[in-house]
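Batch manifest, entry 17 of 40.
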Amino acid sequence: MSQIDYSLDSYNRPKLETPNGEKKLLMHSCCAPCAGEIMEALAASEIDTTIFFYNPNIHPFDEYELRKEENIRFAEKLGMPIIDADYDRDEWFSRTKGQENEPERGKRCTTCFDMRFQKTAKYASENNFDIISSTLGISRWKDMKQINDSGARSSQPHNVPYWDFNWRKQGGSSRMLELSKKENFYQQEYCGCVYSLRDTNNWRVSKGREKIERGVKFYQEAKLKLSQLD
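Output type: structure tokens
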């Protein structure tokens, strides 16, 4: 049996459909690298999609702005509407108080997902969207069950269904990286919050590596540097 080629240039994309034929999708986006492949898949499937950028966890503010602008840039390229939601940084710190030392995928992440999904579902309910989803689940660094449980739980009070599609399947994660290189997206090296930045830098130092230098690394440039070593 031959292996299917899931690369961007060769992949024959199946047409996606929402679970119950919902027409208007509000897609929460965490960043352009995670969102890019999903946005292309939705555009190719002609699903009426609006991107909702709401990520008050991202720290510091200049990092937040850079990640947001990358997402806006790609949305505009696809002709896809994007909502720039409030930053709400103080509310995020208030909600996660006492969870500063939780590990990645721990209780703090659940709190963070809940806050972002609640805002997404509320906006969807108030603006006539039929369904919500998120790009968070495409990253293999994340716990997909944790994300989907939060999405379903947070959307229920607003009577808007949550689409728990597995964006990783059929080569989704690989195409995500391939598209990130093609579009030269900003390559962030930590999840986003101040605590993930702290923990990632502590791990790097323990391994004898330099701390993260924010705002300087892009996928295509990293690819070029690797090719120069061959």
